[in-house]
Design brief:
CATH class: Alpha Beta
Number of domains: 1
CATH superfamily: Alpha/Beta hydrolase fold, catalytic domain
Number of helices: 9
Number of strands: 9
Shape: globular
Strand content: 15-25%
Largest sheet: 7 strands, mixed
CATH topology: Rossmann fold
Helix content: 25-40%
Structural class: alpha/beta
CATH architecture: 3-Layer(aba) Sandwich
Strand order of the largest sheet: 1-3-2-4-5-8-9
């Protein structure tokens, strides 16, 4: 009898290919499904791709509330270790929280390049962030707004939690502090891709990251009309091409 703990279609994925490996990392409260099409696309171009499931994701929000930011980073490290055993070069590609984790990992581990998609430099100002860990005892969850993905087929199929665990918001805020201290230590090539219509991450976050990162080679790409989940929305083909071009340029 099948009793899935992971939400169907939200499972991690692995597509074996050539000697260049790509670890793909989804966003906060999201799932590997956000990165699956990109992973399949890159596999068809000859790369080995692995979509990790961050700890606490793609099951139920209470699981996420029990995790800490280092658990998410360990999920990324697992993926890196798996691909290092079979690939000559390894790249990280992360969306939103996945982008933050990719950048933090780039300051800690040996990599050949990193792609940060729709990656926040900070959270919106809110006095409650400072006491979020305490608030989580009384208000364990925060309701999310409906996704603004413009591609209606993708919107229908999108898999994420309908709430944010308050404790996890506090962890995300702590992780962003780790990001800020990590940026100067990143020296590998970096691609930043953002949408001008992203309501969650304004495009000036890309500029902030570029100013503080230690990399001499930073490429910024801005697309025009997509929502925050740029790997599933109406300009995903352009995003896929930019990621492919960046990786091929550095192998």
């Amino acid at each position: 009898m099948n009793q899935n703990l992971i939400i169907p279609t939200a499972e991690p994925f692995y597509f074996p290919g050539g000697s260049t490996g790509v670890v793909l990392i989804h966003g906060f409260t999201g799932s590997p499904k956000e990165m699956r099409e990109l992973g399949l696309y890159l596999h068809q171009k000859g790369f080995t791709t692995l979509g990790v499931r961050l700890s606490g994701h793609a099951t139920q929000p209470s699981d996420l509330a029990r995790t800490r930011w280092w658990d998410w980073l360990c999920s990324v490290e697992d993926g890196l270790n798996l691909l290092r055993n079979q690939c000559r070069k390894v790249f990280l590609v992360g969306l939103s929280l996945g982008g933050i984790l990719s950048l933090v990992a780039a300051a800690r581990y040996s990599l050949d390049g990193v792609v940060a998609l729709a990656t926040p430099y900070s959270l919106p100002e809110d006095w409650r962030l400072k006491i979020a860990k305490h608030l989580s005892l009384f208000y364990p969850q925060v309701k999310k707004e409906k996704s603004d993905i413009k591609d209606q087929i993708a919107l229908y199929a999108h898999v994420d939690y309908s709430t944010y665990p308050t404790r996890s918001i506090a962890e995300l805020n702590d992780l962003i502090k780790i990001l800020h201290s990590s940026l100067p230590y990143i020296t590998i090539p970096l691609l930043l891709v953002n949408s001008k219509r992203d309501k969650n991450v304004p495009v000036d976050h890309s500029d902030q990251i570029k100013r503080e990162v230690g990399s001499k080679e930073v490429v910024q790409i801005f697309i025009e009309n997509s929502s925050h989940v740029i790997t599933e929305d109406i300009e995903k083909d352009q995003v896929f091409l930019e990621v492919e071009h960046f990786i091929k340029t550095h192998i």
